[in-house]
Amino acid sequence: MTLYHPPREQIELADVLNALGHPIRLKIVRSLAEQGECACSAISLDISKSTATHHWRVLRESGVIRQQQSGRTIMTSLRREDLDARFPGLLGVVLGGRSPELAAAAGHPGGDTA
Amino acid sequence: MTLYHPPREQIELADVLNALGHPIRLKIVRSLAEQGECACSAISLDISKSTATHHWRVLRESGVIRQQQSGRTIMTSLRREDLDARFPGLLGVVLGGRSPELAAAAGHPGGDTA
DNA sequence: TCTAACGTACGACAACTTTCGTACCGTTTG
DNA sequence: CAAACGGTACGAAAGTTGTCGTACGTTAGA
């Protein structure tokens, strides 16, 4: 069980967009943004375990999320810093609000995506 | 030949991301952003005509581009306003630079975000 | 140690995508 | 009118994706 993650510099925009271009994966990413790091089972999806594993893999291998084993669960989190470094603003757009960059540039404090 | 376009309010993020999550379509969108409105044949892709038609259709039906017949060519353009209204900043991210919104909010033309 | 929980691995299958060739259609131009 | 041009429509083939069930591996706890 290797859990491959691409290094930051190898994260490709087309791969990321492709990974995010599916309703279930978009939901996963939004839940992750809300809840922060959490076990896979903390995000309830109405699909089988093996299908869920497939979607986590797509997100992980495209560079959107990071997964690491911790006890008998796998803790999953958004690769916010890597994504922001590589494609500034993308996460903000995807999370449905203003991007943190946009809020910062406008000079409003507390511009955090809920 | 109906050339369906979704109305602005029906443009879905997942569909747009999915459409953009393919190298050829990403290239089309970037060319369109550079060149402005143009005939399909003005963007050279190393694929057959029917394959190109397929990719234009995906972009059109997801709401990314607009196509209208003009004489014997079809003029194609980015749906910038619709996309900016629906998903502010997305186009900026995809076009590889800062978003126009970000630059406007920052209020200085040459502002370089680290 | 035995069992339960969490999640992956594998194999299968259906559905969708990507690609192409060929045929076609509407417009312009000789 | 006929031919050339720009592009779509259709059908087919190959590849990829999304889905599931079952089996498995690891860790935690009784």
TrEMBL record, chains A, B:
InterPro entries linked to this entry: ArsR-like_HTH, HTH_ArsR_DNA-bd_dom, HTH_MetalResp_TranReg, WH-like_DNA-bd_sf, WH_DNA-bd_sf
Keyword set, alphabetical order: DNA-binding, Transcription, Transcription regulation
Keyword Transcription: yes
Signal peptide: none
GO molecular function per UniProt: DNA binding; DNA-binding transcription factor activity
KW DNA-binding (keyword) present: yes
Pfam families, sorted: HTH_20
HTH arsR-type domain sequence ranges: 5-98
Source organism superkingdom: Bacteria
Protein's name in the database: Transcriptional regulator
Species of provenance: Actinomadura craniellae
Lineage: Bacteria, Bacillati, Actinomycetota, Actinomycetes, Streptosporangiales
